[in-house]
Amino acid sequence: MNAESRIQTTAGRLARLGFADGAQAERLLDGLGPEAVGDLDLLAALVGAADPDLALTSLNRLAERDPSVLGAMRADPGLRGRLVSVLGLSAALGEHVVRHPGHWKLLEGEAAVQRMPAREMRAELLEAVGADPAEPEPVAPGGDDPVPAMSALRVAYRGRLLQLAARDATGAVSLAQVTAELSDLAGAALEAALAIARAEVPEAADARLAVIGMGKCGARELNYISDVDVIFVAEPREGVDETKALQAATRLAQGMMRACSTSTPEGSLWEVDAALRPEGKAGPLVRTLASHLTYYRRWAKTWEFQALLKARAVAGDIGLGEEYVAGVNEMVWHAAARDHFVEDVQAMRRKVEANVRASEADRQIKLGPGGLRDIEFAVQLLQLVHGRSDGLLRRRATLPALNALSRGGYVGRDDAKALAEAYTFLRQVEHLLQLHRLRRTHVVPQNVTDLRRIGRGLGMMADPVGEFTTRWKRHAMEARRLHEKLFYRPLLQAVARLPGDEARLSAAAASARLSALGYTDPEGALRHIAALTSGVSRRAAIQRTLLPVMLGWFADAPDPDSGLLGFRQVSDKLGATPWYLRLLRDETAAAERMARLLGTSRYATGLLLHAPDAVAMLGSEAELAARPKEALAGELAACVQRHAEDAEKAVDAVRALRRRELLRTAVAGLVGRIDIEEVGQALSELNDVSIQAALDAAVHKVSGQRGGPLPTRFTVIAMGRLGGYECSYGSDADVMFVHAPVEGSDEKEATDAAYAVANELRRLLARPAPDPPLLIDPDLRPEGRQGPLVRSLSSYAAYYRRWSSPWESQALLRARYSAGDAELGAAFMDLIAPLRYPPDGIGEAAVREIRRLKARMEAERLPRGADPLMHTKLGRGGLADVEWPAQLIQLGHAHAVPELRTTRTLDALRAAVGAGLLSASDEEVLAEAWRFASQVRDAIMLVRGRAGDSIPADVRERMLIARALGYPPDGSEDFVEDYRRTTRRARLVSERVFYGVA
């Protein structure tokens, strides 16, 4: 075999063994010398490394600097395994050991596998910077030029990091041991950095300074490379002025931070981050203990107490640091009792998730879905909720806390095991990512070479890329699932008789958790949960799967208790229906919408309870779209046709379909699918077709009773909000009844028949039934309640010729055909056109009369005791203050401006702007107030289940209405202030436009 063939054969063999570049590997092996080429143990070690090529390259460079390493490796198998393993994982540590070749000796002998106690680490790093470890407050020499000391600190630190990484790479230490040792090493480095800072601050002795480790440093679960979160607390020495002492302590803290982060010829350590201090970066860097405690008692936010869960004295004056930790501890463990605690924590988690780059979200092992933060967040939330009464949960580190939660029954054993496995795996991946370049990163790379190194570093040799990716995705998915359910599932175990020997959560603990979530009747909630989940049926099993997530959605809704009660009631009616639970289990959107609906709206809950099969519409966006009026009319007509001989049954079917459409509109409005104008149109058109269907049934019944066709034609004219397509959920149907006797018929007989139809129509739509009534209100007819219920077209003509008043012309601006005889409706519209659109406009006398009438209405019709600032209809800046100016403009100008001939308020305002009769800014103010007031009226009905025009004074009801309008849990006052501001502006515009007030 010639030399070239031998080289190709050797290179090919090395490639098959795991080297990416067989030829390069052969050259590097040759460079190590003949003994290395034939050293099968060395070759086996290299082949077993995470990245054989990287390990061989770094070893080759190290041997060039210190050839003795090769002999030492042959003599010490432990050294060989540790050195090759760490070189195959970390290019940065390879660079370090090449730069400082003596450091490979740290991996020799028994000392290399022994953990160095924290006090010895502290002494070693202090000695490295020239400070005496025996001194209470060691000082590094050379304050004028701290760079040499800083460089020495980095070299010593990385030497210890090299030794730990080697033990980690060879499996000699657990994850918990690695993170604890990294935290102790960071504490020692902070102590040495503080010694460097003392040399720069002559007045350092004036203050006691304690460094409090936060986050992973405080919890002793630090990464290889991470910002080290700290808080500084200081006290003056005896006889020293506090201001002077704090100035000295601040300089010390700043010097310590510089000593860690400054770039030197040996690089930097890591950033020291003090942003978790009171007031964050805007607050003073150093405070006294009393100042800290005052802040936390009076001003601290929820997230600050969550952060303090990890606080630990790590450097400086440890006694002072422990005083600080003891002082904040009780506040931390009582934080869950604060108002809106859970909502605040959830909001903080959402904020963190929102800040993750979209391009990295699926590769982020820390902040992405199913990442480390999901696990830490869930564990911390459980700790804070239950740690007040259970001292065993007061652990800083995640895995010990999770273990304590499991032992206490707060987390199921299987769930805790799965979560611990996911957390351990993700932390190992995090370490492998960071070790490579000693850079702070949490993003899984896309490069195949990097993925291969990570997979092999985890022991996956057969298919490192594929196996790693599969396991990572599986753990992330499981972590996300458990994150979503963990807070809720244990309380199900407290009330459901589940198989297995898993520890149960006590009823008292479950009740405490429900209270923390916002349930005001936790005992009642537990009863509902028990009823839903007890037993061994498939229904109970699916409910046990659904409820953990749904309880959270109920908690996010304004009224969690009502939501859970409504869910139980609906489930009792539909639980045996196969599609129901399958829909909620498989269609997340349907379950979430249902939870929001039940926890927000008593009105919608009532609709759903009487027609539970309507849950099916929640699973599809398309199902929430308002159905065309023609389609609804056809469906309702078919109902009437099916029950042609029984008017009551026919209208019952009509009202049942109307109930379904009311629910569709309510859901669409609550989830923001349609706006308030679209809600008004949908409800008005639904009322139109319902009136038409009921009218058909009434006509058929009256005709049957009379023994033949009616002697008159009959039509229904929409008025008021129905006429303006502005109905709300609680609106009556304002109408007028018009008839026209059939040619040749007796007028009295025709009028009697028309009365019979009108009365039957009103009765059918208002009779007691499970479905919401549609009350017909004819009070806007000529002469009001004193006038005839029904008039003929000719009677209307005669009345309007002789007796019509300005208010009737104003009311007729809303008139439109609604149901019945369309030709007769058109004739009526032609009849009233000159009244509502006067050819010569409206005279001054009529304007004065309308203004006087509005002022009287405000004075007399506002309910006794009602706050005029909070009444959405008649109050200042409310609906009337918008509608009356619009109508006054219409009466004066619609004869000349066809666009003003509309029954809709907002369309009239827009047309007025187009015609130059109203400024765009005034229209914007009025329209905003009209929309806001209309939304509030709808929200009152949806939340309370009964209509109301005033924003309630009750604080809880205001909160529920504010939440239904999209305000946050603490936004009740903001809602009221927004309403007052909006209506105050509208009142000023209204007075100017309507009364001519400057």
UniProtKB/TrEMBL annotation:
The keyword Hydrolase does not apply. InterPro entries: GlnE, GlnE_rpt_dom, NT_sf, PII_UdlTrfase/GS_AdlTrfase. Involved in the regulation of glutamine synthetase GlnA, a key enzyme in the process to assimilate ammonia. When cellular nitrogen levels are high, the C-terminal adenylyl transferase (AT) inactivates GlnA by covalent transfer of an adenylyl group from ATP to specific tyrosine residue of GlnA, thus reducing its activity. Conversely, when nitrogen levels are low, the N-terminal adenylyl removase (AR) activates GlnA by removing the adenylyl group by phosphorolysis, increasing its activity. The keyword Transferase applies. The lineage of its organism: Bacteria, Bacillati, Actinomycetota, Actinomycetes, Streptosporangiales. This is Bifunctional glutamine synthetase adenylyltransferase/adenylyl-removing enzyme. Pfam families: GlnD_UR_UTase, GlnE. It is an enzyme of class 2 (transferase). It comes from Sphaerisporangium album. One of its GO terms (biological process) is regulation of glutamine family amino acid metabolic process.
